[in-house]
UniProtKB/TrEMBL annotation:
InterPro entries found in the cross-reference section: DUF318, UPF0718
The protein's name in its UniProt record: Permease
Subcellular location(s) per record: Cell membrane
TM helices/strands, residue ranges: 21-42, 54-81, 101-122, 134-156, 163-181, 233-251, 263-279, 285-306, 327-348
Family, per entry: Belongs to the UPF0718 family.
Organism for this UniProt entry: Herbiconiux flava
Length: 349
C-alpha cells in the first residue's frame, strides 16, 4: 500500500495531527525562549535560584539540540524522497554482520549529533533498514563522526587512551547491540504501533516520478513529511530537556566529585552525570575536560560513550519510535557495556 492510494479520509487527519503537534511544539519552544530572555532582565530575587537554574539548563539543552534535530529531519526527508532504494541497498553488504559494520560508519558521512540521528534513523527504517540496523546506526553515529572525533582529540589528545577508548568502545557497543537485537524473532514488535504502521505503509513509489509535475508532487510530500517529523520530535525534545534540567537542579555534583578516585564508582558517577545533563556528543568532550583531573580516565571514557548513546533527552526522542520494553533493554545493554569499558580502561591506565 502506498500513500498515493490512501483515501483522503485517512490522510487528512494525519496532516491535521502533524500540524497540531508542530504548533504545540513551536509554542512550547517559543515560550521557553521568551522565558529565558525575560528572566535575564529580572532581579536576583525575582525567581528562586533553583527555578532560575531549571529554566537556564532546560533552555540551554533545547538551543543546543534544535539545529541538529532540524538538520537530521531535513536529511531524513532527502533520504526518504530523493535517494532511490536501489542506491542504498546496492552499496550495502548482504551479510547482516558486515552490513551493520558499514552502517555503524555512516556517521562519518553524516556528522549529525544524537538528537538529529533519531529522525534520520526513522527515515532509514522507512527506506527498508531493519530495527537492529537502525539501532546500530543510532548508537554509533554520534561517536563515529568527524566532528565528535576532532573535538575529543582537541580536548584530550592521545592522553590516557580516552580518544581510542571512545572510538573503539562506541564501535563495539553499537555492533553488539545490533547483533543482540537481531536475535529477536520479530524485531518489528520493538517499534511503537504508530511508527510500525508508518513503515509498513511507506512513502510510496517515487522512483518513476519525472518531470516538473512529478517533482512538485514529491516536494509537497517532502514538506508534509518534514512537518510530520518535526511535530513528533519537537515536543519530545522539549519534554526531555525539561526533565534533564529538573534532574540537574536536584543532583549534587559534590557527591559525584567525591566518587572520582574509585575505579568503579568513578565510572558509575560519570555515566549518571552523562545521562542527566544530556549534552551534545559534538561538544561533550570539552564539558568533561573540567572533570579530567578529578576522575579516572575510565570514568571519562564511559561518560563520552554512554552519554553519546543514551541520555534522558534521547529517551524521550527514542520513545517516539521504540516501545518502552525495547528502550529498557537498550539502556541496560549500553549501560553494562559502558561500565565494563570504563572499568577496563581504569585497569589499563
Amino acid at each position: 500500500m502506498t500513500s498515493d492510494v490512501l483515501p483522503p479520509r485517512t490522510r487528512a487527519p494525519r496532516s491535521r495531527t502533524a500540524l497540531r503537534g508542530l504548533v504545540v511544539g513551536a509554542v512550547l519552544g517559543v515560550a521557553l525562549l521568551v522565558l529565558r530572555a525575560v528572566s535575564a532582565t529580572w532581579g536576583a530575587d525575582a525567581l528562586p535560584d533553583r527555578l532560575r537554574d531549571f529554566v537556564t539548563l532546560s533552555v540551554s539543552v533545547v538551543i543546543e539540540s534544535l539545529p541538529f534535530v532540524f538538520l537530521g529531519i531535513l536529511i531524513s526527508v532527502v533520504v526518504r524522497f530523493w535517494v532511490p532504494d536501489q542506491v542504498i541497498h546496492r552499496i550495502m553488504p548482504r551479510n547482516p554482520a558486515l552490513r551493520r559494520v558499514v552502517i555503524s560508519l555512516v556517521g562519518v558521512l553524516l556528522p549529525v549529533c544524537e538528537c538529529g540521528n533519531v529522525p534520520l534513523a526513522r527515515g532509514f527504517m522507512m527506506k527498508g533498514f531493519s530495527v537492529p540496523e537502525a539501532m546500530t546506526f543510532l548508537l554509533a553515529a554520534p561517536i563515529l563522526n568527524p566532528v565528535t572525533i576532532v573535538t575529543t582529540y582537541q580536548a584530550f589528545g592521545w592522553n590516557d587512551g580516552i580518544l581510542i577508548g571512545r572510538i573503539a568502545g562506541g564501535f563495539v557497543i553499537a555492533n553488539l547491540v545490533g547483533w543482540l537485537f537481531s536475535r529477536h524473532p520479530r524485531p518489528e514488535l520493538l517499534l511503537t504501533p504508530a511508527f510500525e504502521e508508518a513503515c509498513r505503509i511507506g512513502d510510496g513509489d517515487h522512483e518513476h516520478e519525472h518531470g516538473r509535475a512529478g517533482q512538485l508532487a514529491k516536494l509537497r510530500r517532502g514538506v508534509v513529511a518534514f512537518a510530520d517529523e518535526t511535530s513528533t520530535m519537537l515536543p519530545a525534545l522539549i519534554v526531555g530537556s525539561a526533565i534533564a534540567g529538573a534532574i540537574q537542579v536536584g543532583l549534587s555534583r559534590d557527591v559525584l566529585t567525591a566518587l572520582g578516585s574509585n575505579p568503579i564508582w568513578s565510572v558509575l558517577a560519570l555515566m549518571l552525570l552523562a545521562f542527566v545533563i544530556a549534552i551534545c556528543s559534538n561538544v561533550d568532550a570539552f564539558f568533561i575536560l573540567a572533570f579530567g583531573s578529578t576522575f579516572l580516565p575510565g570514568g571519562v571514557v564511559a561518560f563520552l560513550v554512554f552519554g553519546a548513546m543514551v541520555d534522558v533527552k534521547m529517551i524521550t526522542l527514542l520513545r517516539t519510535t521504540f516501545t518502552t520494553g525495547a528502550l529498557v533493554r537498550l539502556v541496560a545493554v549500553v549501560a553494562l557495556a559502558s561500565l565494563a569499558l570504563g572499568f577496563g580502561v581504569n585497569l589499563l591506565a
